[in-house]
Amino acid sequence: MNDRNASERASRDDDPTSWFEPLYRDTEPDGDGVPWANMETHPSFQQWLSRHDLKGDGQRALVIGCGMGDDAVELASRGFQVTAFDVSESAIGHCRRRFPDAAVEWLVADLFEPPAAWSRRFDFVLEIYTIQSLPPQYEQETTQRIVDLVGAEGRLLVIAIVSDEPRSLEAGPPWLLTPAYIESFQEHGLSMADHFVHTNGSRRGDVWVSTFRRLAP
Ligand SMILES: C[S@@+](CC[C@H](N)C(=O)[O-])C[C@H]1O[C@@H](n2cnc3c(N)ncnc32)[C@H](O)[C@@H]1O
Predict the structure, then answer these.
(1) N or C: which end of the chain has fewer CB within 10 A?
(2) Per the omega criterion (within 30 degrees of 0), is the bond before 174 cis?
(3) Which amino acid residue places its CA nearest to atom 3 of ligand 1?
(4) Which range marks the domain in which residue 18 is found?
(5) How many domains are there within the chain?
(6) Tell me: the pLDDT tens digits for 83-104?
(7) What is the CATH number of the domain that holds 65?
(8) 177 lines ligand 1 (CB under 6 A)
């Protein structure tokens, strides 16, 4: 079963994340089998880092849908206390095996059912390509869940492929974001602090790299 068939079936069955576990279970240690795996810091995150002098100084960071784990390790190397989670147990297994000494708390968790203690807890929240891996009918909940993780004056970095094409179930995966979707984070108590487009040669859209900050209460 290819990714599209698997994810379409999962969406129809109202179980949009069930196709990730088999995919990671069949993945080789070198990442072969995971179409989005970079096996290094994500290139668009790397671009963002080249523009920001990011120092953790012991602040708390959270990586959503951490996949093979490289971006979490990048944040740990910059002095953050990092928690990284993925809905796939096998993905987290890969992370633990790849980075046994990393100062990262690796957890199996579902963005749709986060631990209560995570509410507004993190100083830096990193979201790369998870939103677009979820069908459009989960859009509102996904946004709300992500925003709720950002602490007082904390930052959220969203890296996503954006296009003007309508977000229909048939269009994905991935279900690319729209400019309006990116804007919508500002309707939830965050303001956009920084934004740039990282042209990646994709035929469907460009990578938007958008930083939000929670406004002081
Ligand atoms: C397209 S991949 C991107 C992975 C990683 N961020 C990267 O850029 O390589 C989306 C990831 O989100 C995870 N994921 C999807 N839905 C999730 C959910 N509800 N909770 C936690 N992780 C989820 C998937 O297992 C997958 O690892």
Answers:
(1) C
(2) yes
(3) 129
(4) 3-214
(5) 1
(6) 999 999 999 999 999 999 999 9
(7) 3.40.50.150
(8) no
